[in-house]
Amino acid sequence: MEKIEKKIGGREFAAIIILTVGTKLADDTPAILYDRLGNAAWMAPIIMGMIWITPLYFLVKVISLYEGKSLVDIIKKLFGKYMGFIILFLIWAIQSYAIIIDTAIYTDIIGTMYFTKTPALIIYILLMAVSAYGAKKGLEHIGSFAWSVLLWIKISAFAALIMICIQGEINFIFPILGPGKWEIVKESTANSSLFADFVYFSLIAPLIKSSKDYKKWKRLGLIFVILELSFALFGFVLVFDYIAVKMMNYPFHEAIRYIQFGFLTNVEMFIFPFWLLSTFVRFAVYLYLCALLFGGLFNIKHFEFIIPSLATLVVFIGMMPETPTFTIFNLRQNFLHLITPFFLALPFVLWITAKLKGDLKK
């Protein structure tokens, strides 16, 4: 599978990582972690990051071994035509399901928190139309746009988080270990697939200008999003306490309604546009990766032409749940637990297979 496209630099790759993974602090990810961990949820991203260090090390080793090839090409080479197809189809199916769940969640956020009178279908269509347009323009355009808006998005996000922490109550963080250290480790491990995006970023490794940039910015991106997610989860507890925050589906959007800055009372309306921009980047990346995988499965060179069809299918399926706020929350929580072993094991399986084939010696 080939796609002729200009390569992106390290900073654009870092912007894609930060906006794609970092945006999870503003959806129902905090609610999933608070559900079992209470006020100790802020520790979960740190533990997840520690868990991912070894799998990502082996994944980078395999990518470096086959420099110039994407994860699609590597899986085909290592596992052959039929087994490779099965593994790639599973990765594509997981990504497709994740897009459907996540876009339904974001449609629900926009509809319930900001545009309560706008039909959900209209919001969903507009969200996917903009994201599909960005995805179809290609990775170079996505990266350039992500880098151009990254500073303003992060300034707005960190300003909000700092105000949240200042106006919160530090005593709410105690007892600091919440349900206990073993429960923290267990739940953090079970939800580690929250960082599975870093496996999917291997699909675009050949489109980064140098392998050095790929390794460097992937590592820095991981550190950044770990700290950002932990800081956000810490701040939400300071504002609401763990009992109240456990009952919220979207703590970030509730928190920015709570804070005040001088004479400004509707702070959320200043933050919402920047959050929306990061949302478009996230789903443009997801659609691009989904189409790239589909093209790799069926040897479609110009896979960008199937992006509008994928986006349309996402809207139709995503509108099916009648009560998305509750239904999709449970679906996503169970989904994260289910796919975690697969993504944590995949880098090791790739490395072991390469070693058995003798490619490591070469």
Automatic annotation (TrEMBL):
<dbReference type="InterPro" id="IPR004761">
    <property type="entry name" value="Spore_GerAB"/>
</dbReference>
<keyword id="KW-0812">Transmembrane</keyword>
<feature type="transmembrane region" description="Helical">
    <location>
        <begin position="335"/>
        <end position="354"/>
    </location>
</feature>
<feature type="transmembrane region" description="Helical">
    <location>
        <begin position="306"/>
        <end position="323"/>
    </location>
</feature>
<feature type="transmembrane region" description="Helical">
    <location>
        <begin position="190"/>
        <end position="208"/>
    </location>
</feature>
<feature type="transmembrane region" description="Helical">
    <location>
        <begin position="78"/>
        <end position="101"/>
    </location>
</feature>
<keyword id="KW-0309">Germination</keyword>
<feature type="transmembrane region" description="Helical">
    <location>
        <begin position="145"/>
        <end position="170"/>
    </location>
</feature>
<feature type="transmembrane region" description="Helical">
    <location>
        <begin position="283"/>
        <end position="300"/>
    </location>
</feature>
<keyword id="KW-0472">Membrane</keyword>
<protein>
    <submittedName>
        <fullName>Spore germination protein</fullName>
    </submittedName>
</protein>
<feature type="transmembrane region" description="Helical">
    <location>
        <begin position="113"/>
        <end position="133"/>
    </location>
</feature>
<feature type="transmembrane region" description="Helical">
    <location>
        <begin position="220"/>
        <end position="243"/>
    </location>
</feature>
<keyword id="KW-1133">Transmembrane helix</keyword>
<dbReference type="GO" id="GO:0016020">
    <property type="term" value="C:membrane"/>
</dbReference>
<dbReference type="GO" id="GO:0009847">
    <property type="term" value="P:spore germination"/>
</dbReference>
<dbReference type="Pfam" id="PF03845">
    <property type="entry name" value="Spore_permease"/>
</dbReference>
<feature type="transmembrane region" description="Helical">
    <location>
        <begin position="42"/>
        <end position="66"/>
    </location>
</feature>
<comment type="similarity">
    <text>Belongs to the amino acid-polyamine-organocation (APC) superfamily. Spore germination protein (SGP) (TC 2.A.3.9) family.</text>
</comment>
<keyword id="KW-0813">Transport</keyword>
